Amino acid sequence: MFNHQVFNPILKTDFIGHNVQYFETLDSTNKKAWELIETDIKNGTIVITNNQINGQGRRGTQWFSSKQKSLTFSIILNNDYIKNYQSFLSLLSGVSCVKAIEKIYGMPCGLKWPNDIMLNNKKIGGILIEARQKYLVLGIGLNVNENNHDINSQIKEKSTSLKLYYKKNIEIELLLATILNEIECHLKANTKDIIKWWTNYCIHMNKEINFHNNKIIIKGNFKGINQNGEGIISVMGERKKIITGAVNI
Ligand code: BTN
Known about the structure:
By secondary structure, the chain is of the alpha+beta class. The chain has helices spanning 4-10, 29-37, 86-105, 162-166, 172-187, 191-201; strands spanning 20-23, 46-49, 55-56, 62-63, 70-78, 110-112, 116-119, 122-132, 135-143, 208-213, 216-225, 231-235, 238-242, 246-248. The site of biotin has 19 residues, from α2, β3, β5, β8 and β9.
């Protein structure tokens, strides 16, 4: 069930989240979002489920979530609206999630390039953005009310949930509305500010990292984000851009 009584009074956006498409169970909210786009859906619609059973992660991975405990949703965005912003959408979405969690619960979350949401050096959330023709689907998954035994054994070592830190149950609709407020607000920000916020939240600035891309691993020192939104690493004194792939710390 989706609790509109909690969600509606918190939501302060002009368009994101005004239409909520809630499903008890879905394969993937991103996948459902693409189906709904075929039906000419409103810009800013969110697709949310209580039970995502085949979530998609970045780089073809699977995203694990727990029934009634995880926050799994996708936002449908008209590409025209954020044309100049597309490369920054991934960074600003991560910033928005961290700011929302900080605002409500004061938890010290951070970001791992490009947009993994981290708590205590463990992952609590991820973002998958897909673009087709004039639409973007921005999918966000967060581990919210999982206990230790709810976290899939394949990711247990490297993942945690907000509840495991906060020790209390968290209201999904409150968290969701706050994230949507932050995302819409950041969509209006300039790229310099997005880079500044992202850098402040980055947990591996000027640290040695391993960059993985298509089975190639590069060791380097993470130097931040350039003005195009690309990551920069220094490898034996040479600066290299990182665009796709993942960072291991
Ligand atoms: C990652 O690999 O870090 C990105 C994970 C993104 C998961 C979310 S959950 C909601 C949306 N629906 C999906 O199938 N994936 C995204």
